[in-house]
Amino acid sequence: MQKTVRTPRWPLWAATAGALMLATAADAQDDKYPSKPITIVVPYPAGGSNDVFARLIGKALGDSLKQAVIIDNRPGASGNTGTGQVAKAAPDGYTLVAVSSSMTTNAAIQTKLPFDPVKSLAPIAMFAKGPFIVAVNNDFPARTPAELIAALKKQPGKVNYASSGIGSSNQFATEMLKVASGTFAVHVPYRGMGPAVTDLIGGQTQLLIASGPSLLPQVRAGRVRAVGVTSLEPSPIAPELTPVASAVPGYEFELWWGLLAPVGTPPRIVGQLNAEVNKALALPEIKAAFLKEGAIATPVTPDQFAGVIAADIPRWQKIARQQHIVAE
């Protein structure tokens, strides 16, 4: 007769105890975060604001968390290459990405991104916000926001404005100004901010809206003239400048920079990193370094940062549709 082999049954209490032991072990491992180096991917070349801010915050995090923080520059596809790689990384808090608001302007016009900027990434902390400077060629007849709008209305289609490229943040800022003020200017896209500034100085274009570091040195050297700032209120980066909103009520454009993680990163780790970044943003040396780069340290919660990203994309999509901004 063939014998029946019975599989032993574990008591329910034993199975429950085993599950609790596994959960406790996972929690204990979580409690050790970070137990190895953290990598912050910068999806742009070294030297830009994203890179500068990531290195400042990375050093502060490393000092505070007693763990190495590695900055890994992975440029390509207007920041989409490196950001997409982080979106697919393990959601364990060890691979993060430092991005700027250009991620949302890209998302507004790119139909085939390698990631979903809202669903693939978990906002951790904002680093900073900062307005653009509105500058004109020295021969252009405007010294204030009101005079700029009057000159644009007087010469519809005869004023050329520069940008660092199609779909760039400064193109969106200028197109938004055109919509809000009922004016028109011809877009002249360049491959980068350097040649755009050069041609503004030379008079090939008459208007450029760009970051403080890009324009203020030229303004202070007398090569171009600043007529306003794109924040609703006067900004610490150039307190002498009048907000464009004084002539175009409600007009506001501010860049932001921040830190994201792959979606699914444990909330406890997200909260820990948010607290550490916000602690770093309170340091006087960090505030001063950010201000030099045309930005103001801006501590927020992860939920607040997520709200900014979620609101930005449909806003830029609307401008893109209205002004026919399409990816190259």
Describe the structure.
By secondary structure, the protein is of the alpha/beta class. It folds into two domains: 163 residues, D-Maltodextrin-Binding Protein, domain 2; 116 residues, Periplasmic binding protein-like II (D-Maltodextrin-Binding Protein, domain 2, 3-Layer(aba) Sandwich). Helices cover 43% and strands 19% of the residues. It is built from eleven helices and ten strands. Strands 1, 2, 3, 4, 5, 6, 7, 8, 9 and 10 form a ten-stranded mixed β-sheet that branches. Helix 2 links the parallel strand 1 and strand 2. Helix 2 packs across helix 9 and helix 6 crosses helix 11. The chain is globular, with a radius of gyration of 24 Å.
SSE topology string: HEHEHEHEHEHEHEHEEHHEH
The CATH topology label of the largest domain is D-Maltodextrin-Binding Protein, domain 2
Which range does the strand content fall in? 15-25%
Shape: globular
Share of helix, binned: 40-55%
Counting H and I runs of at least 4 residues, what is the number of helices?
Answer: 11
For this structure, what is the CATH homologous superfamily of the largest domain? Bordetella uptake gene, domain 1
Number of strands: 10
